Amino acid sequence: MPQPAKKMPGAAQQFTAFTPYEPAPSEEYMNPTQIAHFRQILEDWRSELMAEVDRTVQHMQMENVNYSDPNDRASLETDMGLELRARDRERKLIRKITQALDRIKTGEYGYCESCGVEIGLRRLEARPTATLCIDCKTLEEKREKQMAQE
């Protein structure tokens, strides 16, 4: 059974700490125990991000002050802009997490959507929203780099 996730200090996008999964030597890939492990990681991460969104909304409502000094107003607007960009990145990440949870429901989680091979437990623990194996991801990045150079 997976260990409960513990919040790591740092940025809201920082992944939550967890006990790495140690499969038995003859254990089948993406068995119910592994699925439960990754579901817990994804749900905890999504909850953490959603809590950060709620804190931002509350903070922005409390900071709704009209400063008379233009410098104070500009500083506040800059801070709000940075915070909104961070929340937008988190919103996109929440969408990816939800898609990963949907793949768990359909039995597609843990397998490369390009070639169908196993993504691997360590890669999924490093990036639980991964949809490509390391080989397909490397190939995709090379293609993107080539397209950028043209």
From TrEMBL:
First and last residues of each zinc finger (dksA C4-type): 112-136
Q: Which InterPro entries match?
A: DksA_N, DksA_RNA_pol-bd, DnaK_N, Znf_C4-type_bac, Znf_DskA_TraR, Znf_DskA_TraR_CS
Is Coiled coil found in the keyword set?
Answer: yes
Q: Which PANTHER family does the record associate with it?
A: RNA POLYMERASE-BINDING TRANSCRIPTION FACTOR DKSA, RNA POLYMERASE-BINDING TRANSCRIPTION FACTOR DKSA-RELATED
Protein's UniProt name: RNA polymerase-binding transcription factor DksA
UniProt feature coiled coil, ranges: none
**Which HAMAP family would you find in this protein's record?**
DksA
**Subunit and interaction comment:** Interacts directly with the RNA polymerase.
* Tree of life domain: Bacteria
Origin organism is Acidithiobacillus ferriphilus
List each copy of the Zinc finger DksA/TraR C4-type domain by range: 107-141
What keywords sit in the KW lines? Coiled coil, Cytoplasm, Metal-binding, Zinc, Zinc-finger
Q: Which family does it belong to?
A: Belongs to the DksA family.
Q: Which SUPFAM superfamilies match?
A: DnaK suppressor protein DksA, alpha-hairpin domain, Glucocorticoid receptor-like (DNA-binding domain)
Q: Spell out the subcellular localization from the entry.
A: Cytoplasm
Q: Is this entry keyworded Cell wall biogenesis/degradation?
A: no
Q: What is its main location?
A: cytoplasm
Domain DnaK suppressor protein DksA N-terminal, chain residue ranges per copy: 34-104
Which residues does Zn(2+) bind? 112, 115, 133, 136
What job does the chain carry out? Transcription factor that acts by binding directly to the RNA polymerase (RNAP). Required for negative regulation of rRNA expression and positive regulation of several amino acid biosynthesis promoters.
